[in-house]
Task: structure prediction
Amino acid sequence: MYHVYVFTLPALLWLLVLWRAPSACNGSRPSRLLWGFLVSIAVALTTRPPAVEHLVRAATGSPDLSVLLKHLAGLASNYFILEYVITVHGRGPRRPWTARLRIAAAAAAALALTVVFVFFFQHDPDGPPSRVTDAHLGDWSVRLYEGIVYAYLGTSGALAARLFWSNRRSVPRGVLRSGVVCLAGGCALTVGYTAYRVFFLAEQHSRPGTPGPGTVDPVSETLPVVILLLLAVGLVLPPLRGLARYGRDQYALWRLHPLWADLLHAVPEVAFGPRVGRTRDLFILGDRTLDVAHRAFEIRDACLVLRERSAYGGPGGGTGVHGAGAGTVAAVARTVTADARTGLAEEPHARAEAAWLHAVLHGEGDGYREGGAAPLPWNARTPREEIGWLLKVAEAYGRVPRGA
Result:
């Protein structure tokens, strides 16, 4: 798993840091705490590659300062994730002294690590940085150092896991709740990792003559990867939900555009939105949910205007359904109108509506000779049903060949 630590996980986390940076700068306190957690984890993992270790050694003169930086960043990440879940938990009164106590605990742990590392560790100028702990596991200073790390890690992980798990029912079902469950699972697995490391280190002894980077345990290398993946999935799922909704809205606008564009020119009395090309519409950023609703309602209003024209024969003779296809459209419309009255499926009704609209918008001649045969309007109970119905009409409208 070493190559995962060195390359994949740091790159993934720095991408998340860059992605969340705008929301951290312009967002709320939870967004800033979440960003601080991501930065801390990214810094902790970035200290592991040998190139970074050599850079820290050359810049500071310390042979193993990167180990201390890694653990300090780990403490900071635990502090930020704990503050984040406490902030979004939203239960019980806020007590300022508890926040100050958490800051004091994190600062005390960081100060204790620094003092033990600087004044009591046995530093090896010629060995790899990880040997400062792995090669001297039996020393009291290393045991104290590791004890501080895992005491803070286990305590904060257990509290964060409990808060995430208890808060899951206040989150709507679906992607958001799945993200909270992943966060709770990652924090709970942190507690298990801490317990395992305490047991593992209790079994080890100092091995000053051992070559290489130190004591490598597959479980100790694998569990942090699983924890980080769970936390990353939990943090990414809610934004991905918004991205998926944006994709669905863009696809809906793409499907509605041909019918909307034809109605735009045929029914100018309807207050349509900005005239945007179909391709250019794909490059509009932001939330498109309201745009989909507005476009669907514009199509609905234009269809109602066309029905009124058809019922009254059109203004001044009007223009509408004519030619050889008019009788066919009328026959289909009458059949589907009867189906709609008896509660049959809506797909034939949508096809008949699309055929009627195509004949109205692309027919030749003058007058609404078959206008009275228009299908009954679809009675949607909610805006979502209205949009879904018009998407089916637009899809069927696009399949009608020109000149039919």
